[in-house]
Design a protein that fits this description.
CATH topology of the largest domain: Alpha-Beta Plaits
Order of helices and strands: HHEEHEHEEHEHHEHEEHEEH
Structural class: alpha+beta
CATH class of the largest domain: Alpha Beta
Radius of gyration: 35 Å
Distance between the termini: 35 Å
CATH superfamily of the largest domain: RRM (RNA recognition motif) domain
CATH architecture of the largest domain: 2-Layer Sandwich
Number of domains: 3
Shape: rod-shaped
Strand order of the largest sheet: 8-9-7-11-10
């Protein structure tokens, strides 16, 4: 007796009991204090859900402030079995609000088909309600969601791929000054292709560190030249000079490495892209942290 919809109709226990005794769905106990279904609930398995979906229509075009009673009265002329108003959670107002659409279930597939294909179904100020089978609506939403996700993913990838040329704010940023100038070195591997697999970024880094170099990172991409990032400004100059004089230092696991300086403009683009990637990663972490914090309140 405590749920709101019943309370709007009546709060008189005897009146409610008398009304329920005429129901074909539920029965009232002898002491008139309990109720139960005449037949047990159907098993809510996948087959049952599919059978219900086949005779359920998606209907849109109702006023956003419409009440369930008005919608039920409207559908009573069509012999419907069940009507579900579709609501969403309004985060700002912290309440559920009507979407203006319903899922309407009919006793048979034929009745549902007749309603969906009906020429024109007006409702108050709506000239013709939008109608489609629930299965069609669900598939359309799946496609729409997939397209939105792909669009969002593509946009993120485009943002991450923006280099210094396309982003003057990054190119001109004083943050680039934090990176050491003339600290990048290109290198290639001089050996038959079948022997190149012996050389890894870790092998190269360990070898160069053993020679006293401050190596921050060795990057070996599928295509040469590969890249060495040193930790000190102007280190690339002394690095190349040292290995030009002492050729014994340019071999790793018996494979010869050829070093050359990275041109200034290419170095600037490299660090600009590195800075953009760091910002993008930091932004992504912050977004995840914010979403996590929203789910936990002290």
């Amino acid at each position: 007796l405590k749920f709101n919809r019943l309370a709007t109709l009546s709060t008189d226990k005897d009146e409610i009991t008398a009304a329920l005794q005429m129901s074909t769905i539920i029965e009232v106990s002898d002491d008139k204090s309990k109720v139960r279904r005449v037949t047990s609930l159907p098993q809510l398995d996948d087959e049952f859900k599919r059978s219900v979906m086949k005779r359920t229509a998606y209907v849109k075009g109702f006023p956003l402030d419409e009440k369930l009673d008005s919608i039920l009265e409207f559908f009573s002329d069509y012999g419907t079995e069940n009507v579900i108003m579709r609501n969403y959670r309004n985060k700002k107002q912290k309440c559920y609000m009507f979407k203006g659409s319903c899922f309407v279930t009919f006793p048979t597939v034929e009745q549902c088909t007749e309603f969906v294909n009906k020429g024109c179904v007006p409702y108050k100020n709506t000239e013709n309600l939008i109608r489609k089978f629930q299965a069609v609506y669900v598939e359309e939403k799946k496609v729409e969601i997939a397209q939105k996700r792909k669009k969002s993913k593509d946009a993120k990838e485009d943002a991450n791929n923006i280099g210094a040329e396309a982003n003057p704010e990054v190119t001109d940023s004083k943050e680039l000054d934090d990176y050491p100038k003339k600290s990048l070195v290109y290198f290639t591997v001089e050996c038959p292709d079948e022997e190149k697999s012996k050389i890894t970024a870790l092998n190269v880094k360990k070898h160069l560190i053993s020679l006293g170099h401050d190596i921050k990172f060795v990057e070996m991409t599928p295509e040469e030249p590969f890249l060495i990032r040193l930790g000190v400004e102007n280190a690339a100059i002394s690095f190349i000079e040292k290995h030009a004089v002492d050729e014994s230092t340019v071999e790793v696991l018996g494979v010869r490495l050829i070093f050359r300086a990275v041109p200034e403009d290419e170095e600037s683009r490299y660090y600009a892209k590195l800075l953009a990637l760091k910002k993008s990663t930091a932004s992504s972490i912050n977004r995840k942290r914010t979403r996590t914090q929203k789910h936990f309140h002290s």
